[in-house]
Structures are given as structure tokens and as C-alpha cells.
Amino acid sequence: MVFMGGLFPHLTLADGTEPDASPVVSKIALEIEGITDPGHRLLAFSKGLILLREGEPFSDEAFQTSLDLLQDSRLFQAIDVPDPDWGSEEISLTFRLTPFRRIKDIKIHGAFPLLQKEVLNAMTIFTGDAYVAGKLKEQEDLIAKAFVNEGYLAPKVALTSEADPEDGHFVITVTIEKGDFLQIKEVEIHGNVSFSDTRLKLRIDSWKASLFKGEIPRFIEKKLQEDVKNLRQFYRHKGYADVEIDPSINRITGTNDMVIHFLVNEGMKYTIRFEGNKEFWDRTLRKELGLGSGSNQNDLGLKRGIRNIRSRYKKAGYLDARIRMSESTSGTAPRQERNILLTIDEGPRTFVGSIVIKGNTAFDDARIEKQMLTRMPATFHDGAFVPETLAEDINAIHSLYVRNGFLNTEVTEDVKWRDGEEAGQQLADVTLVVDEGVQTRVAAIAFTGLSSLSHTEALAALALKEGAPFREYMIESDENTLSGLISEKGFPHITVKGKVTIDKTTDGSERAWVIYEVDEGPHVKTGEIYYTGNFRTREKILHREVELAKDTPFSLTQTLETQRNIRNISALNSARFKVLGLKEKAEQVNLLVAVEEKKPYYMEVGAGYDTRREKYAHVRLGDHNLFGLNKDGWISSEVSDIGFRHELGITEPRFLGTRISSTFSMFGEDLQEFNQEFGTRTYGTSLAFTRRLYENVSAALTNRYEYREQYHVGAEPIDAEDLDQYEPRSLVVTTPSVTYNTTDSFIQPKKGMIAFAALDVSKGIETTLDNFLKHRYEARFYYTPVDRLTLALRGRYHVINPYGSNHAIAEDQLLFLGGISDIRGFSENMLAFDADGNPVGGRTSILGSVEARFDLGLNVEFTTFYDTGTLRDLTEPDVSDVFRSSAGIGLRYITPIGPVGFLYGWKLDRKPEESAGSFHFSIGYTF
């Protein structure tokens, strides 16, 4: 018999009668196709899903639940249980299980211009999922629909599968023939009177696409709707609250070209004026009116805005403010304007004249007033009287009393009005009368049905204590606290209900008797943990993230921690969890973890130009899951006009099983920075440890060995006293650092800050030239006061302090300023230079920058900046160490991977032999 969730027939004997008692299960055998090892984890996991026990009577319900659990695991495509001999007093059951073969890999061909990830997201199967041949057709339809949504007319998608002969699992190949797509030939706008076609087209992405040919700028329906939304927002912002935009599409016969028409019905322009408003500026009230952000159909927007203005006045103490609207129409169609005048009669402003509290004995006036937002005028409070605020204050005072056991407290208000000393003001004298009632205290706390915790442990966990004021709202909180504690003891089905009895004593006070009724439910142990989908990731990598242990009390908290830990494994795209047996209240629950691995291999290639390196190209090859150990191994190389750097490294995210990430690398580089008379060849190794301490704080410790060789490239001979710097040197550097980061974006930050502090402890092996401490401190701030404007500020301080007998620092260790990365307007490293025009380094560098970034739309950003900085403790004593400054402007184009910018900086203290400034080109922000 093959069962997929069915029951055995109701038991009957051969003569048609029913047995007096269920037969005893003498033996339970499991046979899993393709698995003969009795210690195999799948065999052990499957046994944990069978609730029947050898030596116990057969249970129809337990058998059915076992089948349900086996089926719910989605591990088996067939479950076969042959009929036993029901006429015997003892029966033997055999579960013959046929595992699903799984999807080992999904290969995608022809996805461009979509990313492979976008195609995978459109599918309902994933790597590691059970292979079901019948699902392939469904995936073809889903992928085709995704491409139709991207503008393709009739895409063809074919999915084929092939079993891997090594393990029998399947590799699925997705072949996509996208076919034709609609190309936007032209965009036309009709009905626009107030704004030109060009001005409107600049806000239409479909029009921008029409300027190009090819597959990427194709027509996409979703983008057309976004264009309509953008045009509507533009018009509303300009005062056309009733604007309507109606798009239509005309396909050119015999071609895949199309013309998009936008029919604009501008409606009347709204001109809003205010009069009588003294408390608030026109700009403030216009923002409350909100006509620029929404529709005004049937004047609903106007009515809503007037209510907002009235509410704002009321909150400021103008209780009788009135707003009268009058309107007129000017101009002739189609350039008509609706002139709306809002006349505001603010009326008198009401302030709090006095606050008197009566009837309070349990709490003094100061304690009660701390609960109130209604206050007398003071330095940081205008003292406006708002009835709604007073009502909230009364509720807060009532809550104060209830929290302290006064269950029947009543607070009433009495407000008397009088004229203020100044014209147009009135005062509200507030009297609050408190009828405290009697205080209720907890007489005793008891528990029923509690066995997993001692009475003392349970009492200690409660927030409500014996003898303390009774707070009814704490009962529910303590129920949850007890449930959580008992659940972690292996009782996940725990229920706790608190009941309260209140009586009065002879002195008139009240006592509360609290009983927590506990139903712990069955004790549950942790069973087997089984993983699927980890074709490359070793099981031990997954298992070390598990907080649960077999045969220990089952813990929901540890289960959630396990889920979080496994989902944080960098080698995985996702992880899905099933806790089997929990809802069935089985004695043992088993955890099934189905993971989806990332594509392990990656390649990053890039090339470009910037001012610091000029032409450059880089490549990085790596494996996210090296040897299946969740390690990231890579090799990278960069070549530019200033030299090269090659690096080989490996990152371990869980160093020695901790939450510390470690990175070991070996590198070699040869760099000759612009405007310097020396170059540096460096070979070495690095071992870095990083750890996130808090949400926004991370710490690092880096240890580096370097073999350095400084070589001369200038025309002038090397000074005799500097010859020792050009001898090969070996050194070790240890760098502890800490970073605080609250920015909202890594690529384009608009708010938040970054603070960084590091100390390089450098020690030379053969010489003392590298014996120094380098302090590095930097802070960056980002603030967006209004839309489209972001202010960025930066401050940086670096200083090198030799130690021991060392008094000289090698030139290749000195600090230089000037260029795209620090003081713009100066050539690279040329902030300070000697009489021969050669750059001069120092032991201290200080710089500060401020930049204003204006979003011009169309992904273009205009920037203005001011940089200032200085080098101190210079190697040339005759060179000035004063602060030097620059200011400049620039344009950046914002791409998905960051901005590309052209900037020009002017020297504000130009020297006679210097240029006026310098052009800079960069990819990404300089800070």
C-alpha cells in the first residue's frame, strides 16, 4: 500500500468482527531507498517522525499523525506501509520510504537584460528544493510572465532537467528566448499649456528611453505608469491640483515601434492666499493645506487641508479660530486660475493661567504634574491651553494611580476662563480634583499546576510582588513571563492564566489574592536535526550554528536563535525551517532545515579612470564557499598608471567558532604616486579580526607584516642622509580600530554619521625608521534639511609619533595631502612643496571639508565644496605649515553602483608658482 496521508482501514478480523483490543506493535522497521547505512542521518530523522512505539498498542491516531509528519517533511515522494497481519496479537510495521531527489543547481541562459537573481525570484522552486517534474511547466509560465512584464511580446521559456549520475539529484537548465519587444519610437504630449513639451519630457523615463535604440531602452508598462505618476506630481506641485494624465499607446503598423501619447488635462491652477494669519507663516499653512501632494477631487483635498489648518491653530491655543474660504476665477480657458483666499480669524489665544490639584495625598503636586503636558508658560513651553491635551493628562494621572494600586481613582477637571493681561489673550485656570479611593495591595500569590519551577523561582520572576500595590495590567505581563520560563524547560505548550480575588479589610483597604493557574502540557525533547539542500556546504558548518542539542528540553528561544544563525551564513541565499511534531504535541520534535546555497564562484571585473590613479583596471575571482566551509577565498589584481597590487586572501566568518570574522591575505604591490620622487614595492601578509559589538559599532584588530623597498625615481640624486631609507626594510604593524556608523546608505548617504578611530603600532625589524605610532581619527556627518539638498561634512586628524630611539621617519611612511581624496583643487600630494616644486610630507595632517549636494533630477547632482587642511612637522623646515584651502563645484551622475563625478577646485590662497586650481574625476564620493 502507498500512503500519502491516508489511514489504515478501520480494524476488522477475518470473520468480520472487531478485535477486543488493539494489537501490540512488536517491531517498526524503516527502509529508505538508496540508504543501507543504519547510522544515516535521514534514517534517524525519519524514525523521529514516527510516533508509534515498539511494545505499545497500535494507535490509529498515532499512525495517521506519523504519516502526516513524514509527508509534511517533503523529504519523501512515496511512503509505502504494507498491511500487517491484523489477526495477530502482535504486528510488525515496515515503512518503505522513497526520498525525493532534489534540485542540485539551476542554470539560466538568455536572461539578459534581467539578472539571474530576478529570474530565480520569479520561480517557485529553488536550489535544494524537492524535484517534482510536474512543476517545470509552471516555472516556464512564471518566467515568461516576468519577461512580458519587462516589455517582451512573446518570450519562450524552456526548462529541462538532467540527473547527476554521481548522486541522482537534478540540474535544471532554463533556456530563455526573449523574442521581440516594443521599442519606443516617439513620445508626444497633448493638452499641455502651462509647460513646454521639453520641460515635461525631462520628467518622463519613457522619453529618455526613446533617445536610444536596442534591447535595454524597451517599452515597459510599469515604467509608463511611473511616468504618469511623475507628471501628475509635477503638476500638483506647481498648483494644478485637478490635473489628469491619460496615457495611450499606438503601435506603428508592421513594426515593433510605438508612439506614446500623454493627454494632459491641466485643469485650473490654484493660487492660494492667506490673510489674517499672524501666528503662522503662509508657507507653514500652505504645507498644512497639502494641495501639492494629493488630489482635490470634489474639493475634498481643500476641505481636508482646512481641517488641518484649524487643528494646527487649536494645538497652538487658538480655540476659536475660524477659517473662511472665498474664491474667484481669473483668466480665460485654457489658462484659468482658481484664486482661493483663506481668511483666518485667529481669535484670542488661550494660555494656562494656573494649575491647582486637589484631593491628592498619595502623590504630591510635583509628581502629578510630571504626568501632564498642560503646563504654565515657561522658557521651553509656550503654555498654550488645549482641551484635548488636558483630557490626555487626566488619563495619564489616572494611569499613575492605577499603576500604584488605586483601582477606583477618579479625576475631574474644572476650567475657568478669564481675560489675559495682553490684548487678544485669555487665560484658563485649571483645577483637577482627585478622588483617590483606597489602595489595593497584593496579599499573596499562589500557583497551581506548577512543577517545572519552584515556588521561589516563580515568585522571583514575577513583576507583581506580594505586599506591593496591585496593578492589574501586570497580570498579563507576568503570565507571559511565566510561560516563557516554563517553555524553556521543555514545555512549549504551556498555558498560564492569572486570576484575582479582591476583598476588603476591617480598616477599609483592599487586598488582592492572585492565583496563576498553570497547565504545563507534555514535556518535549529535541530530536533529530536534518539538513537538505547543502550540496556543497558541509553539514558541520550548519550544525555549529545550532543552539539546540539532541535529547535536551526543547526551547523555542533556541530554535529562533538557530534560525537566525543559519540564515546569517554568508554561503546561503536562504534557509527554511520546519519544526515537525510540535503542533502534534509529540514527545519529541525534529527540526528540518532546507537551505538554498549561493552560486559559489564569482568574478568581478572593472576598468575606469580617476584623478588619483588615472587609468586603471581590476579583476577579482573568488569562491563564497571555499571547500564547502563557508569561507570566502579570492585572488585579485589591479593595474593602474601608478602601479599594481595583487592579493590572495581568505575570510573565515566564524573564527574558532566565535562571532569574530578573520581575514588572512598575502599581497604584493608596486606604487609610484603622482608628484612624488619615490616609489614603494611592498610584499607582505595580513591577518585581520573584526567583530560587530553593537548594531552600529564594530571593532577590528589587524596584524600586518611588510617587506618594503623604497626606490628613487626623481631626477635629483638621493641625499646622503636619506640613503638608509632606500635599503630594504621589514616591519610589523598592529592596528586596533573601532567604527561607529549610522548612515542610511553606503553608496549615497543622506543622513547619519561615521566615526572612525585607529592606532597603527609599527615596529621595524632591521631598522628603527618604522618605529612609530600613527593615530588616525575621522568623522563624517550627513544631513538632509530639505528634499534634494544634502550637506556632508568631514574632519580628519592623523599624526605619527616615533618612539624609542627613533627620531626619523621613512619618507614612504609620511603623510601627504592634496588631490581628489582630501584637498581638492590641488594636484595629488601637492598641498605642501619645496622650492624645487617637489611634494613635502609631514608627521601630522589635519583636514576638514564641507559639501552641499543638490539633486537636479534626472540622476544628476550639482555639488559645491570647501576643503581646508594643513601638514605639520614637515621634513623641510622652510616650507610653511599654514592651513591651505580650496572651494569648487562639480557635477555627478548617480548610477546604481555610485556616483561618477567631474569636479573643479580653486585654490583660495594660490601661490605665484601654482595653477589656479585643478580638475578632478572620481567614481564614488570622496567622503
Automatic annotation (TrEMBL):
It is found in: Membrane. Pfam families: Omp85, POTRA. The keyword Signal applies. Residues 102-179, 184-267, 272-347, 352-437, 441-521 form the POTRA domain. It comes from the Bacteria. Gene3D superfamilies: membrane protein fhac, membrane protein fhac: a member of the omp85/tpsb transporter family. Residues 625-927 form the Bacterial surface antigen (D15) domain. Keywords: Cell outer membrane, Membrane, Repeat, Signal, Transmembrane. InterPro entries: Bac_surfAg_D15, BamA/TamA_POTRA, D15-like, OM_assembly_BamA. Transmembrane segments: none annotated. This is Outer membrane protein assembly factor BamA. The lineage of its organism: Bacteria, Pseudomonadati, Thermodesulfobacteriota, Desulfobacteria, Desulfobacterales.
